[in-house]
What does this fold into?
Amino acid sequence: MSSPVASLPADWYHREDMFLREREQIFRKHWSFVAPADLVDEPGRFVTAEIGGVSIVVCRDRNRTLRGFINLCRHRAAPLCSTHTGRIARFVCPYHAWCYALDGTLLQAPGFDPGMDMAQHGLIPVRVETWNHLVFACLATKGPALQDWLGDIVDIARNYPGVGQMEFETICSNQCPANWKNYSDNSAEGYHLSSVHGELDRSLVAGETRIRAHEHGQFIGFEVAYKDGSGPGYWICKFPGLLMHFSRNSINIEVIRPQTPVSIEMHRWFWFLPEVTKRDRRETIAFSSRVMEEDIGICARVQKNLETGCHETGILSPQREPGTIFFQSCVRNALS
Ligand code: FES
Ligand SMILES: [Fe+2]
It folds into this structure.
């Protein structure tokens, strides 16, 4: 048996300076899931999203090239788009009506010298790429391409139906009064399954869950077998804030967005194969929501204790919590 590993210091779970560092050095450096690619399949269609506190907009331009920009007018920083999705011919700023083409070029700046260098004031680009009919964006101008960042996930996903074969069902949003690492520590281990998630635990074949940390893609993979014969499933907890659940007939993706040092938003997207009945879809989503409520409950209660100053650090079991150990090592490495 290997020795326990010290967990991250408790004050990292509520300090404002840590939150700002993590936002800058982790969330703004990694790729983030933005939206299903269907939402930007035509020129002019756009979606907005938030990455590390920064609002971005992704659209398809007139040449059908996918484009990403900071959602910010170069005049005096007003956000250009205020809805989650939409269709436009060009970006028109709601503040003083500066106008930009879908490729980000500044077209008009009313009242400014017509000789001004428009090329200096185009929208700030953001990297965008798609994988599995899903749009991702990254604020960092350098760093791995999307598929390198996903690493082994690309091969694992090939064992399951792709998003392109499925129907999008719905998106659910939740909030949790906990630091993002508290919630991810929980998502990265199966140790709490039998005590926190009785119903989920009973749905799995005992002894058939295999958990493995993958360096290539920085994620923890859970291979699971369902008792109802619905085939094997694969759950992914990807650093820093992406969860994916693949099964034989559905996929769901969850994005964890830190809002403050002590609160997060979670957004879940669900897809199903066309033959899955409405009733089964509703039950799958309701089940996922019950599991999430259980996690929100335990993380919120842990968070209160982490903030008391009564707990400096805990210990993690290499046998039962290898995923959490791996996840926390990713945090340490990113901040070192
Ligand atoms: S801030 Fe956009 S036009 Fe003024
Ligand atoms: Fe859980």
Summary: The two ends are 29 Å apart (CA to CA).
